[in-house]
């Protein structure tokens, strides 16, 4: 089934959406993106885009930082995105990629005096971390300080940091890497936020710990509090806690909720999926597929 892209103000076949080799964003990373999931519910005969407006609001905030002048509101971007996904006609789990970028065909390091543009496309895509339980290692690469680059802005150029981390982990025999903050506290994975279960509480690095303020992260915190009655601590997390926690899992739009069984070759708990992680994973997948009426507002039906 063909895929489509909103490109230069029109919906076109994905293979026709091409940019020049002179495009500023290609040379300097002057672009930002969102990753959005659309989840197929066969029982409903429906594809649900998860927390679409929240993603677009975050994109608009990032545009302010990178001085990307996109003449659309978050609501406009959501409508355009839903139209593209509908045009694709997929009846399977789908990944949606919006991109705001400096589109001028010009060289020179800057953000000013450059044109901006927006595109979005959708493709079928299954699991990002293709294992049931994930083996992680603490990376030698660290997250940048907020005054180096704001980690909550999903800028394409910043993701070199994440790419270095991911490749290091894979080449060393692990599934994912965990980065630390500049001062050595736990931050996040290469494409995921991180949670620990400690003595019945859910613990996650705070937003000031050089992390992306993840939408899946926020989803899990909400479900943990409202559905399981768990206490959630957002705070500085020390490295040693990675080894002493009862459970650990990663969250992200691409990765969904992925349990972690081992960190730096130290087994967590019984080495499988812990009980709290299992409950949250089940709740999360019910929510994203539109099966929890309480959270229906998170799901945008496509068809």
UniProtKB/TrEMBL annotation:
SUPFAM superfamilies: D-aminoacid aminotransferase-like PLP-dependent enzymes. The keyword Transferase applies. Its EC number is 2.6.1.42. CDD domains: BCAT_beta_family (cd01557). PROSITE patterns: AA_TRANSFER_CLASS_4. Keywords: Amino-acid biosynthesis, Aminotransferase, Branched-chain amino acid biosynthesis, Pyridoxal phosphate, Transferase. It is an enzyme of class 2 (transferase). Pathway: Amino-acid biosynthesis; L-valine biosynthesis; L-valine from pyruvate: step 4/4; Amino-acid biosynthesis; L-isoleucine biosynthesis; L-isoleucine from 2-oxobutanoate: step 4/4; Amino-acid biosynthesis; L-leucine biosynthesis; L-leucine from 3-methyl-2-oxobutanoate: step 4/4. It comes from the Bacteria. Its cofactor is pyridoxal 5'-phosphate. GO terms for molecular function: branched-chain-amino-acid transaminase activity. NCBIfam families: ilvE_I, PRK06606.1. Belongs to the class-IV pyridoxal-phosphate-dependent aminotransferase family. Acts on leucine, isoleucine and valine. This is Branched-chain-amino-acid aminotransferase. It comes from Dehalogenimonas sp. 4OHTPN. The lineage of its organism: Bacteria, Bacillati, Chloroflexota, Dehalococcoidia, Dehalococcoidales.
């Amino acid at each position: 089934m063909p895929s489509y892209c909103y490109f230069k103000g029109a919906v076109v076949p994905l293979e026709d959406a091409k940019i020049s080799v002179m495009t500023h964003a290609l040379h300097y990373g002057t672009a930002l993106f969102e990753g959005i999931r659309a989840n197929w519910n066969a029982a409903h005969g429906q594809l649900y885009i998860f927390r679409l407006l929240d993603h677009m609001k975050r994109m608009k905030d990032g545009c302010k930082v990178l001085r990307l002048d996109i003449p659309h509101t978050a609501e406009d971007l959501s409508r355009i995105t839903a139209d593209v996904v509908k045009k694709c006609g997929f009846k399977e789990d789908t990944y949606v990629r919006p991109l705001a970028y400096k589109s001028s065909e010009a060289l020179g390091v800057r953000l000013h005096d450059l044109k901006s543009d927006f595109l979005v496309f959708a493709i079928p895509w299954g699991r990002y971390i293709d294992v049931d339980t994930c083996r992680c290692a603490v990376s030698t690469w660290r997250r940048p300080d907020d005054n180096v680059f704001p980690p909550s802005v999903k800028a394409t150029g910043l993701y070199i940091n994440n790419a270095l981390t991911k490749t290091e982990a894979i080449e060393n025999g692990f599934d994912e890497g965990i980065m630390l903050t500049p001062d050595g506290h736990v931050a996040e994975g290469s494409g995921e936020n991180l949670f620990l279960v400690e003595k019945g509480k859910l613990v996650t690095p705070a937003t000031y710990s050089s992390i992306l303020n993840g939408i899946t992260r926020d989803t899990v915190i909400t479900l943990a509090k409202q559905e399981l009655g768990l206490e959630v601590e957002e705070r500085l997390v020390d490295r040693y806690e990675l080894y002493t926690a009862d459970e650990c899992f990663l969250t992200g739009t691409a990765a969904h909720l992925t349990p972690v069984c081992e960190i730096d070759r130290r087994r967590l708990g019984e080495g499988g999926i812990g009980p709290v992680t299992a409950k949250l994973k089940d709740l999360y997948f019910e929510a994203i597929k539109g099966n929890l009426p309480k959270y229906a507002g998170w799901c945008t039906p496509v068809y």
